[in-house]
Amino acid sequence: MIGSLCQEKSPQITPFNTTRNSVAFQFSWTGVKKDYAATEIDRNFYLLLKQMILSDERMLRNKEHSISFTSDGLQLSGVLHLPDHEPLAVVIGCHGLMADKKSPKQIELARGCTAIGMAYFRFDHRGCGDSEGIFENVTTLENRTSDLMAAVDAVSHALEKNMPIGLFGSSLGGTVCLTAAHHISPFSMVTLAAPVQSRSIQLPDDSPGSLKKELAENRLIFNVSAAIGSLHHILIVHGSNDETVDIENAHRIYRLARDPKAQLILKDGDHRISSKAHQERFLRKTVQWFSDCYHDQFDAAPTKGI
Q: pLDDT tens digits for 20-79?
């Protein structure tokens, strides 16, 4: 399992008495050592073996693992990013209504989290990306909340232990995190352009027809205000010129949430946070928030921002 891989030492190949036509080498991994002597015929095999093992080790160090799990009988697809050592915590990301786990924001956030020693899990909600389900039939706030709860269980199983969980949600993904937080008790949470009420969503004229249909058929009606009052260690990020989810949603989340809490308003920022400068600021602040909240609660030395 992945939890075991986090703790294993790297495989080692140590050559000795190497000549042009032969090589002797020692192979060791997880405490087992064995010496080998290779003839000229075997030398190429040794080089290939070394290349394969080191390649596998690089793969482990990249720490990206595809994970499939089920939610209400549907198979969902996710990717777990691991740091170079056993993770301190894991952050689970929820994408927006029409997005998927390949969101550039989540991929960059995964890199930032692993750089400070935390795992990151991004997944496709039902009906999106590589997950099962027909979008128009399965997309509700309740269903997406169930997906997030299933993702928490999947990550705990993959890591073979329960560890502190952080939450990140973009747009409707932020609403999902707000809704599920009282079940998960995250050590920290970050929302980006999250709507508190469905009636505050203003769809652009060029929005996909399936999205307009969702709202027209009243299958995405919600008001999660009541769930926010118990939340803490939350960072609320929003663009001041968000054309889809009015900035008042960010102010409302901030007013209702408990301390510690923080708000990052990106001046002139749009819903997608399309400005590169805004993206970089969002990434730095988010990663630092997860780090600070973790260390504040688990008595570890603070980690400097990236």
A: 555 565 555 444 444 545 554 455 555 655 565 555 444 444 579 999 999 999 999 999
For the chain, the residue count is 306
Q: Which domain holds residue 165?
A: 64-298
| Cα of 167 vs its chain's centroid, Å | 8
Torsion of CA 263, 152, 299, 259, to 10 degrees: 30
Q: Are residues 31 and 138 in the same domain?
A: no
Q: How many whole angstroms separate alpha carbon 30 and alpha carbon 133?
A: 42
Q: How far apart are CA 112 and CA 120, in angstroms?
A: 9
Query: Among 23-27, 182-186, 242-246, which stretch is predicted with the lowest mean pLDDT?
Result: 23-27
Domain-terminating residue out of 62, 81, 107: 62
What gap in Å lies between CA 178 and CA 146, rounded to an integer? 13
Count of the separate structural domains present in the chain: 2
Q: What is the pLDDT of residue 51?
A: 60
Is the domain of 283 the same as that of 138?
A: yes
